[in-house]
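Quality-control log, excerpt.
Job 1 of 2 completed; input and output follow.
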Amino acid sequence: MNNEFYISTDKDKLDVKLILDFLNNDSYWAKGRSIETIQKSIENSLCFGVYKDSQQIGFARVVTDYSVFAWILDVFILKEFREQGLGVKLMESIMNHEELQNLQRWGLATDDAHGLYKKFGFELIKRPEIFMEFVSTPS
């Protein structure tokens, strides 16, 4: 990554208003999430911010037990900074993070970024019949 961009897991650097704006207005997966929900999700996740100088331009978070399982969520790069390899750099930072090594299973869901995640070994679930989910509507 060139010197003007960097990635940090320091939650104090995160621009929660930017994350809220992107998730509610530009994502297909998180429209309607409240600021309280976003703040709580940040508190309970390993978060990765992507920055140009001191301006946040991207984000991802990982929910994990740090030993067996991790789920990657809320991955984004602001539109005006896409096509510069920053999504790849963000995923490299996540997959190479020292606390996330030797996990047995990683997961994520995407409608449109399969090509990015395939670069890191992700593939469609081989045995979807063993996976279950429960989806509830927040009150």
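Job 2 of 2 completed; input and output follow.
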Amino acid sequence: MSEETTNKQDMPEQLSDILLVLDKEKMKIQAVKSIDENGKMETVDPTKKNQNQFMRVDKSGDFFSNFFSNFFSQLKNPTNFSFFKVPAPIAIEKAQELQKQVDKPTPEGEKVMKEHEVKAQTQPDKKQENQNNMETAQTTTEATEYRYKPEQIDWDTMKNLGLSKEYLEKRNLLDPLLRGYKTNELLPIGINLGGSILRTDARLSLQQGEDGNVIVAIHGIKKEPNLHFEFFGHKFTDEDKKNLIETGNMGRVVNLVNSKTGELMPSIISIDRLTNDVIALRTEFIKIPDEIKGVKLNDEQKQTLMEGKPLYLEGMISSKGTEFSATVQFNADKRYVEFLFDRSNHNQQAQTNQQNTQQSNQQSQPQDAPRTFRGKELDDEQYNKFKAGQTIYVELKDKKDQPYKGYITFDKDTGKTNFEFPGQYKARVEPAETHKTQTAVNSEGKTNEATKNVQEPLKSGQQRPKNEKQQEQQDNKPAKSKGRKM
């Protein structure tokens, strides 16, 4: 069985529609980008260069009607514009066709314009209802991404999973569900199997079933990403696998195949770091910001990110006001540009995240010590000591393949691995050992080799004879009889 059949829910984004607009004063066709709080519409030229800025709307008829009624009611001077809804893959082509009709009208062109024109009276009787349903939506492209309403959710199913509307709202997880996203964290759920109950951690999402009803999809944790089978027609190369394991992103655009229609879908691929699912996102849904942490991106840099490639940026400013540099890359699962500081230990980070989440949800559940730390696999002797809670010495390599050394200790209570450089370890351990020895000498009457024959009491911190007299006593004192009881 291929990954395509086992991960049907991970299909790339469904086709969406683009909203084009004719400014009746300028007589120019543009693509809608957004609308601000004052009702002013922002548009861009309908070109390939700007396609990542186009406002996209779910092609569902009911959803589009709801959205457009709300959009039109917010618009300042709405009578100055005419709107057209066209499929995203042919938006640029249709915009050019509509512009030709504006410039040189023909009966055929008029027919095309009427076919795609959208009027505000689509569902006038629901205008107030739509206003209420969309009142929490932002007036940017995010406003188009609400796919579901709370009342569409089967709350009885949620209850059977151990979840409620109040719980999801309190954790700020309901909003991403309504937008069609997966929850951004793992949730503890219980599944009743009749004779037993399965308890696990999973991400949740909402999807539309074949009967039109909204269903709850459960995304459980996999041991590792399944990269051995074809993924929507794509066979992962060794380089693809290496990039996905190390950074979580494949780093290039590939054509995936829609199994139903045969359509080629240019997409990027990433790994869900919480569940290890393979996630694809069509390139038309990639949104690249104009700037990142104070660094304005040029067209070449934007194109690099649009192609799913990593980009190294210098001179960024952190929230604390300090300058830093880092590699950034667009992540298909998160749907935004992320920072890649040190992803060389991606598997271990994902495992640690899972352990931390499980610990917070099921604190009584014991934690297993990881066999690998920062790419270093422990041998049997090291691992046995490590999982027993002992501190072990390891030699590691950083992301530039430079060696460094340190000490690691596994905390069974938290499931975390603590790392210390040699200097940190010695600074913590040596004073403690010195104090332990001194306590034994001064308080418990014990001696060490350097001081066991000294008759004068030692001062605080002294472990060796302080002068020749004490040293002579140490050297000349006869050994004690082995038969004498202490």
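Post-run check on job 2. The first strand starts at residue 16 and ends at 23.
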